[in-house]
């Protein structure tokens, strides 16, 4: 708290990636009312690097029910809820896949290696490890899932949207901003496994939603999260034009 106050006291302008963080820091008097503030659309995404990629198909030609989560393996990223949802969904739909990308962290809230090994052994997840290039993992999925408890603005969500993927994430700060519920995905409460399962089930039972919501995601990414637009906004606000 005090360090934030000290760091921001002499700022001429403070940038935020979501309104929730802006309002919280103002409420705590960390950002003084006289200091100008700007909310930008995350760090943006390169639309050319993360171009639309065809949805994965099963042997009969339908879209494969393939879910993906990319995150540091911390409990507050919603990893446990994701795996719990995978267990339930796989009991109902044996062809559903649940992919996980990310490394174990030294953070006290990290998932333990033994737990991760058990999930892999049980077939609950397909584990990719840490990836420098996440595009192959996004390409292998039809829905991107981030059940995180809080973010700034998730870069992985923007990258998945740019590649034409529907999103399931939490109605939490930094998670809810890129998703219009029912248009390019679904928002679920934090730590709500049943609601997470229900959102996943929507796609499996209504497979037209994969493409419909995926295209909506790409449209939102182009409109709001193009890195060139985000950078231009920041440069203009900093008076560096």
Summary keywords:
two-stranded parallel ribbon; globular; 241 residues; Rossmann fold; alpha/beta
Q: Which residue ranges are poorly predicted, with pLDDT under 50 across at least 5 consecutive positions?
A: none
Question: How many angstroms separate the termini?
Answer: 33 Å
Q: How does the helix and strand content classify structurally?
A: alpha/beta
CATH superfamily descriptor of the largest domain: Glycogen Phosphorylase B
Our count of helices gives 9
Fold-level CATH name of the largest domain: Rossmann fold
CATH architecture of the largest domain: 3-Layer(aba) Sandwich
Strand elements, count: 8
Query: How would a textbook summarize the main sheet?
Result: 6 strands, parallel
Give the topology string: H per helix, E per strand. Answer: HEHEEHEHEHEHEEHHH
CATH class of the largest domain: Alpha Beta
The domain tally reads: 2
In one word, what is the shape? Answer: globular
| Biggest sheet strand line-up | 5-4-3-6-7-8
SS strand fraction: 5-15%
If you compute it from the alpha carbons, what radius of gyration comes out, rounded to the nearest whole angstrom?
A: 19 Å
Question: In terms of quaternary structure, what is this?
Answer: single chain
User: What is the helix fraction of residues, given as a range?
Assistant: 25-40%
Mean pLDDT: 92
Can you describe what's shown?
The chain is of the alpha/beta class and 241 residues long. It has 2 domains: 2-44 and 225-237, no CATH class; 66-224, Rossmann fold. Helix content is 39%, strand content 14%. The chain has 9 helices and 8 strands. Helix 3 crosses helix 7 (193-205) and helix 6 packs across helix 8 (208-224).
